[in-house]
Amino acid sequence: MVLSLILSSLIASLLIAFFKEEWYLPRTLVNVVAAFYKLFVVAYLLWATYQGRVFEISYPMVPFADFHLRIDPAGLLFVSLSSFLWLLTTLYAVGYLEGSPNRRRFFTFFNLAVTSTMGIALAGNMFTFFLFYELLTLSTYPLVVHRGTQKALKAGGVYLVYTLLGGSLFLLCLVVLYTLVGNGDFYTGGNPKLALWVEGQPLMAEFLFYGLFFSMGVKAAIFPLHGWLTRAMVAPAPVSALLHAVAVVKAGAFGVFRLIYNLYGVDLVQSMNLWQLPAYLAGFTLLFGALMAVFQEELKKRLAYSTISHLSYIFLGILIPGQIATMGGLLHLVNHGIMKITLFMCVGNYSQAYGAHKVREVAGMGRLMPITTLSLTLASLGLSGIPLTAGYLSKKYLEEGAKMAGVEWALYLFYAGSILSVLYLMPIVFVAWLGKSKEEKRNFPETSLLMVIPPFITAFLTLIFGVFQHQKLNPVTWVKLIASIEYGP
Amino acid sequence: MSLDLGYLVAFPILGGLLSLIGRLRLYAVFVFGLLSCFLSFYAFLLSLKHGKPLYQWVGGWIPPLGIGLRLDGLSGFFLMFTAVVFVGVGVYSLGFFKSAYKEREEFFWFFFFFLWAGLNAFFLSEDLFNLYVSLEVLSLTAGVLVALPGHKKAVRASLNYLLLSLFASLLYLFGVAIIYASYGSLSMHMLAKSFSEGGEFLYSLLPLIVSLSIKSALFPFHFWLPPAHSSTIAPASALLSSLVVKPPAYLLLRVWIEVFPKDKSLEYVSWVLGLLGALAIFFGSYYAIRQKTIKMLLAYSTVAQMGYLFLIVPLYYKAQYAEMRTTVIEGFTMQAFSHALAKASMFLASGNAIYVSKRDDISYMPGFAHSHPFTFFALFFSGATLVGLPLSGGFFAKFLLIKASFEVSMLFQGVVLLLGSLLAALYVYPIWRESLSFQPEKIYHLPIPRLMEVSAFALGFVAFSSGLVAGFLLQALSGV
Predict the structure, then answer these.
(1) How many domains does chain A divide into?
(2) Does any domain span residue A134?
(3) Measured between CA atoms, how close is B438 to chain A, in angstroms?
(4) Which residues of A touch B (CB under 8 A)?
(5) Which residue among A63, A160, A180 sits closest to B429, beta carbon to beta carbon?
(6) Distance from the A102 Cα atom to the nearest Cα atom in chain B, whole angstroms
(7) Alpha-carbon span A183 to B293, nearest angstrom
């Protein structure tokens, strides 16, 4: 079960590597079958894990560390998010890349990237986590430079510099972890061996914590390590959508979750006050990203800065002690993923259909591409935290959490972030609906149906998750489960 | 399960001889190539199962008269990956000689097999003189492989290499003579006993160490390597750069851990070697970054990657204590193994690039990822292995070695290892960037023979994914 989550996309990746470029149908078939299969497995696992069953697999890789995969509620949250969005993005990518060269290479590395994301979610110790974390770097690099233009190549270079330096720091921390502590396993409530070690060497423990935090921070684009994300926007839209809005940056955020909750343990992080410095940094990033986003003309850049800002919501939620804040952080991890992927897909549609890349170029899109613009509007409302959307729900939890923990400044930052979100998202929506353009309306459908439906589904989900917040199938249920596990009943 | 270790040497020699007969060549290559490969794997599994060293005396003559062969986890591992590289390069050559250098084919196969035999003999040998003989076989066949294209540049590189290599061999022989004169034996396990009783061993060991470092191109003796490895044909470059420089470093590890006494004077020697290794990493990478042609880049990268094997020599000194030894041996072996496979794949893939573009420049390979995806995959995966990114074997090597350096608190080694992999990223990156760049007017359309593409890819892929089975592979070393 555990392995099949990883293998399904790995096998798809390998198969596609051997398919010829012009084998359009078999490639699409493999892609879609693998994605659906994974979704079924995830559905089963959700049910089984809710019943309390544990899935685990491990074998020794090096004498002191195992290759360890296990399924716990937190990992499953990330798995279900990414495998659901993977299916949609795959469909979207099939439509988006139609007729363009090198689809074989694209889907090979795309599936490899998803494989690594699964591995990150399922890793049962820091060692396995690191393996997949770095594999994600490696497999996303060819995707960033997919177009092969000078600009793309340059962005790819910057991406590698950031991630490889981050990776080296991570490696160093990993060696420290496995040499001095001797154990990097994830436990509910923290690794007991590590807790024992921390008592003896509190200073070293602090350094290790910050080291690990910053090596995750590179992927999560926390200030000042965010430079790669905005540049990586030269990648094709599906890559920006899935990887840079969901998989890569969330892998960093998820890593921080593992670090705090399953390696150090909440109690330790609280008692040593380890969360404060990262929280200040996240707070600054929140404001910085949102402010930068307001001044971006280019749509994708604006969304990238918004991603930077919104990741800090997640960080703050995870960092601020207290069950409610944690729930808010995790909930925002899911909701932001769904909303941001919608925005990226919609923006991709604009540029694919009418070549609109800048804010003022989307004028009149409401008339030309109504469904896409509707999806964009819903997601924008959600991201700004308007009531009855998923975004409102997660922000509400975050604010409650900050209030309960007595972290006043975070509360104000959340408000400021929401106002700024309105400022940088609503202009797009207004220009799209109310602006005038000379373009002739093309026939329905607006562009390939494969590109219109996925963002519509996710936009719709934004609404569903927001309105039906007490349903059992809402992520809130799951997040509650995680929080209750990590904090104890 | 038993195996006459002599076959591991005899079969490749037989294959080499038969390949000289024109009509039999392909059959000989197939049959003996497969047989030798099978035997090597069998030997590896045997060592894995056996757990402790297996000694055999050729012809039943016991030392000090006879020749001792020894198979243990370490030599089994080296035999195994030598076979993997040879099979990969062999498959590549089957395609390669159809398109170029047809008149060189018969020589190539002959020396191909002799090189294999020499390597197998080297890894199995137990006494210092026998090691000398196989080292000579290696140098001579390698010299011929360097000169194989026959143009002036190659011949000059080959002559330089041979002269220097002969000088190193003489040094080695000199050291061996002193050892024999003072201790009356050349067998390693006998020497280990004699050395521990004290004596003036340092004078005899120094020539040995210098000779070995010349032969494996340790900085500052590296100057012969780049011209020699870059001027010859792709399959020969692959063999030379991935395998021929490894045995001296292997022998150094072996004698240091098994034979050399734990003496204070040797600690200084170890530090000198370690510093030279660090310099090799920095200078090799620096020159690799500055190269414009891909083969020179790869050759300098070999200098840098060999540096790791010397950088960790100070760890050997400490490793004579108990369980530390295993981590060092594991890291060393993983590094040798993954570098061998990755470098072979890199050279083969660069051969593909040169085959298509007819040029050696890195800037002449735009769009390889578009026109020849398999060559790109080979460059991608083997490049990642050289950098040491997970899941590659290279990552495990670096991780183990950094961990070992932390455990004995020699942070210098750990830091250099980390910097080294960042530097490796700097010289691998131009290759990736150029092959991923896309200019529709510059795309090459010449198809590459299937065997050439697949073998380069397979080696790179195995090098990369070997990390997944690292645990299994490393089991072999637990008994060493």
Answers:
(1) 2
(2) yes
(3) 4
(4) 17, 59-64, 67, 101-102, 104-105, 130-132, 134-135, 137-138, 141-142, 145, 147-150, 153, 156-157, 160, 164-165, 167-168, 171-172, 174-176, 178-180
(5) A160
(6) 6
(7) 45
Residue range(s) defining the domain that contains residue A331:
275-489
A116, A132 contact by CB (below 8 A): yes
Which of A40-54, B290-304, B362-376, B440-454 is the most confident on average?
B290-304
Considering the domain architecture, whether residues A314 and A234 belong to the same structural domain is answered as no
Q: How far, in Å, CA of B377 to CA of A401, rounded?
A: 48
Q: Which residues in chain B have Cβ-Cβ distances shorter than 8 Å to A141?
A: 432
A81 lies in some domain: yes
CB contact under 8 A, B369 and A60: no
Q: What is the pLDDT of residues A242-282, one digit of tens each?
A: 877 788 899 999 999 999 999 998 888 888 888 989 999 99
Q: Which of B375, B386, B389 to mutate to test the interface with A (most CBs of A within 10 A)?
A: B389
Burial class (CB in 10 A: 0-12, 13-18, 19+), B451: middle
Predicted TM-score (pTM) of this structure: 0.92
ipTM of the complex: 0.89
Are the Cβ atoms of A150 and B330 closer than 8 angstroms?
Answer: no
Closest listed residue to residue A342, CA positions, set A369, A385, A375, A384: A375
The C-alpha atoms of residue B184 and residue B200 are separated, in whole angstroms, by 14
Q: Which of A134, A141, A178 sits opposite B403 (nearest CB)?
A: A178
Q: Judge: B384–A17 Cβ closer than 8 Å, yes or no.
A: no
Which pLDDT score is estimated for B418? 92
Instruction: Report the distance separating Cα A326 and Cα A318, nearest Å.
Output: 5
Q: Which residues of A touch B453 (CB under 8 A)?
A: none
Residue B133: pLDDT over 60:
yes
Report strand pairing: B54-57 vs A65-71: unpaired
* Mean confidence (pLDDT) of chain A: 89
**What is the widest separation between alpha-carbon atoms in chain B?**
72
Which residues of A are less than 8 Å from B427 in CB distance?
none
Pair (A367, A487) in one structural domain: yes
Question: Which pLDDT tens digit goes with each residue over B455-474?
Answer: 999 999 999 998 888 888 88
All residues of chain A having their beta carbon less than 8 Å from the beta carbon of residue B387 are 164
Mark whether A172 and A279 lie in a shared domain.
no
Q: What is the pLDDT of residues B232-282, one digit of tens each?
A: 999 999 999 999 999 999 999 988 888 887 777 788 888 999 999 999 999
Is the CB of B426 inside 8 Å of chain A's CB atoms?
A: no
Q: What local confidence, expressed as pLDDT, does residue A489 receive?
A: 62
Q: For residue B44, what are the contacts with CB-CB under 8 A and spacing of at least 6?
A: B76, B77, B79, B80, B476
